[in-house]
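tokens incoming
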């Protein structure tokens, strides 16, 4: 599944030559709405309506992440029946299933927004090799939140130990780590 998801992300990136998500969403016959969702919910994907709803108040990078995550569900999980409303800690198998499809949607988002053909040459550059933790610079380069950048490198087996200076900065940034994503899939 892993390679399959990466191929889907790569092919889509090559096909449209763009990561403009409004454009991609419309090409994939989904609909995107920006509607305030309150303090906890940041993104909702309505499978039957093929509708992605995100909170307009999110940081631009986080919007890109969450739209793309929802697109991952749109492309990969149309036929899957999953119940997000039961207590997943008490329902072991349902919990596993949800974690698996969440990981797949994250993987799609990470490989679409940070495509192999752009990342791989960058990783060979000296400034990256010499930086103790190039996550923030790479996040700016790809216009994604630092936690998605880190996940992308983890998927690649390249995650670097987070140095405490960055850890402190990231911990203070509510956009990065404080929010919860609740979805209806
Ligand atoms: Zn999800």
């Amino acid at each position: 599944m892993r390679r399959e998801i990466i191929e889907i992300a790569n092919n889509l990136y090559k096909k449209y030559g763009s990561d403009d998500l409004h454009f991609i969403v419309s090409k994939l016959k989904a609909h995107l709405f920006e509607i305030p969702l309150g303090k906890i919910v940041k993104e909702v994907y309505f499978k039957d309506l093929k509708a992605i709803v995100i909170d307009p108040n999110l940081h631009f990078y986080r919007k890109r992440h969450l739209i793309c995550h929802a697109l991952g569900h749109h492309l990969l999980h149309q036929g899957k029946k999953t119940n997000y409303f039961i207590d997943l800690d008490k329902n072991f198998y349902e919990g596993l299933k949800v974690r698996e499809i969440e990981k797949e949607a994250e993987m799609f988002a990470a490989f679409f927004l940070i495509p192999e053909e752009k990342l791989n040459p960058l990783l060979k550059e000296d400034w990256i090799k010499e930086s103790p933790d190039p996550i923030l610079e790479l996040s700016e380069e790809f216009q994604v939140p630092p936690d998605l950048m880190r996940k992308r490198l983890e998927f690649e087996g390249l995650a670097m130990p987070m140095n405490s200076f960055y850890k402190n900065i990231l911990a203070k940034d509510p956009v990065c780590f404080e929010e919860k994503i609740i979805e209806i899939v």
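note: The chain has one domain: 2-177.
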